[in-house]
Design goal:
Elements: H1 18-28, H2 35-39, H3 47-61, H4 75-93, H5 95-114, H6 135-175, H7 179-192, H8 197-227, H9 231-244, H10 249-262, H11 266-279, H12 284-296, H13 300-313, H14 318-325
Length: about 325
């Protein structure tokens, strides 16, 4: 990043909510934490909890949400935080890569535990000095230690070779526009060799492209289902597409309308409409739809608040005025 995160301060003049600025500073100052801590979930969290945690943060950290907005020195911070967030989610959500990640974390923890710790010889609890070993005993211990090191280096070399093979396969798929296949292979390369900076950089590029492709596929599926008035299938596809494009307010409001008018799920309709309002707070239509959903749920005070907001943003919104008079 161009700017030191530690030196950054909240700037109300930016096109970035001050609360999100604070979140970014805190997140960026802890990028070396284990993946589950970055996501804010337990080490044994299930796939659903991991996905939910990623989605909530991605809505706020996704760089595409701030396209053409003034982020000042926070611009590289947003990009860096999202890359790490995406990396954490993708490696923990896939069972195979999660196993590799956890194996690596356990190995690092064990290595840290074996590290010698200085101890004051005069300390009252210090252990008495051990008797000197004979030359034969010392040689035997050295051979055992060297054998263990050789085994460790061999395993490490094998893991790096596996990572290289997966990476090359993934990049070949990427060059052929097979985004989803590429993402799976590069994800495995990252899991086997997480310290490789080249893999990390390409991983995010590939994964973002794969997300875009998946969102397009799901949107096409939704449109086909809605043409046949299969509202549940259409909604499910749109809801999943929004997960892959958490910065897309228009996608969220489409899903909200179908949940409300098509399948009658007011809770999901409210969640999606609220997301749209959070992403684009100046869009009168989004507040009107949220107000209508609250009205359908008999939440009069909430409906009144959102409809009045819609009218304030767009005094010509006749539908909002009609809905408000009906409360």
């Amino acid at each position: 990043m161009k700017a030191s995160v530690v030196d950054l301060e909240v700037d109300p003049a930016l096109d970035l909510d001050p609360k999100i600025q604070e979140e970014l500073i805190e997140f960026a100052n802890g990028l070396d934490r284990p993946y589950h801590e970055l996501l804010g979930v337990a080490a044994d969290a299930d796939a659903r909890a991991i996905k939910k945690a990623y989605f909530q943060k991605a809505k706020r950290f996704h760089p595409d949400r701030y396209f053409r907005k003034n982020l000042g020195e926070f611009m590289p911070v947003v990009e860096t935080c999202f890359k790490k967030l995406l990396e954490a989610y993708e490696l923990l959500s896939d069972p195979a890569t999660r196993e590799e990640v956890q194996r690596g974390e356990k190995a690092r923890a064990a290595k840290a535990a074996r590290a010698p710790v200085g101890q004051d010889a005069a300390a009252p609890n210090a252990e008495p000095a051990k008797p000197r070993m004979s030359g034969a005993e010392a040689a035997k211990r050295l051979r055992r230690r060297m054998g263990g090191l050789q085994g460790h280096h061999k395993a490490k070399k094998e893991r790096k070779q596996k990572a290289k093979t997966f990476f090359e396969s993934g990049m070949a798929a990427f060059r052929s526009d097979r985004w989803l296949e590429a993402a799976g292979s590069v994800r495995l390369a990252m899991a086997f060799d997480p310290a490789n900076d080249v893999y990390r950089e390409e991983f995010v590029k590939v994964q973002r492209k794969a997300h875009e492709e998946r969102a397009k596929q799901l949107t096409r599926t939704a449109e086909g289902a809605l043409d046949l008035r299969n509202y549940q299938e259409g909604f499910d596809a749109l809801e999943e597409a929004f997960y892959y494009r958490p910065f897309d307010a228009e996608l969220a409001i489409r899903g909200a309308k179908i949940a409300w008018q098509g399948i009658g799920d007011l809770r999901k309709a409210k969640d999606l409409a609220s997301s749209a309002c959070e992403l684009e707070p100046e869009q009168a239509e989004y507040h009107r739809v949220l107000g209508q959903i609250y009205k359908a749920a008999d939440l009069t005070a909430n409906a009144k608040r959102e409809l009045e907001t819609a009218i304030r943003l767009d005094p010509k919104d006749k539908e909002a005025k009609t809905e408000l008079r009906g409360l």
